[in-house]
Structures are given as structure tokens and as C-alpha cells.
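Comment on this:
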Amino acid sequence: MSQTETSLLLAIVGGFALLAATVGAFVVSRQRLGVLLLVLSGAAFACALVFMARFSSEWEEQQRAEVIAKYDVTVQDWGAPLGSSPDWKVDGRIQDCVVLVTGPDTPTMECGGEEMPLR
């Protein structure tokens, strides 16, 4: 588990713990503490969004590196996010490509309905 994944998990768990403490504070009539905890839980969830974006970017960069390592192609312009754009610039030409990520295996790159040549 990467540092970003760990931070994301801690931010989510911490946010829910703070929400639970917020409910408890309001139950025992501690409104100021409840509001403070509510604000802190909101901040924890905002941090979780930042960590999710960072994790997503790291995952996409890793998948792109695996495509470059696996296939004998030069990608000048990736569809962004990975595989969503129909127009990619591959080997100097605009092509209709897609990267399929189906589980723990390396990604599969197809352009024009055919898998690209392997290295």
C-alpha cells in the first residue's frame, strides 16, 4: 500500500470517526464541540478528496508506463483520462485507441480494433 493510499484510508476513517464524535457531542448537549467536530470532519473529507485525486493520478501514470514498456509504440498525445479519448496521437498518426485494464494484469492497448505490436 502506497503512502497516498494509506493517507486516503486514514482521512476517510478519521472523517467518519469525527462524524460519530459530532453526533455524540450533540447528544450530550455540547453544541460548540459538535460544531467544531463537524468542521473537522468536513476538513478530513476534503483531504480525502485531495488524496483520491493524487492516487488516481499516480495510478494513471503507472498504467501509462506499463503500456509504454509493453508495446512498441510512441504515444505523443494520450487520451485523458487514460483511454477515454477516442483520438490519440500514436506513432505520428491520429488513431482511435483504447487501453483496457482488466484486473491485475498489464493493460491492453488497442488501436483501430487491433492490439498494438508488442516489444
Notes: The chain has a mean pLDDT of 85. The helical segments are 3-27, 31-70.
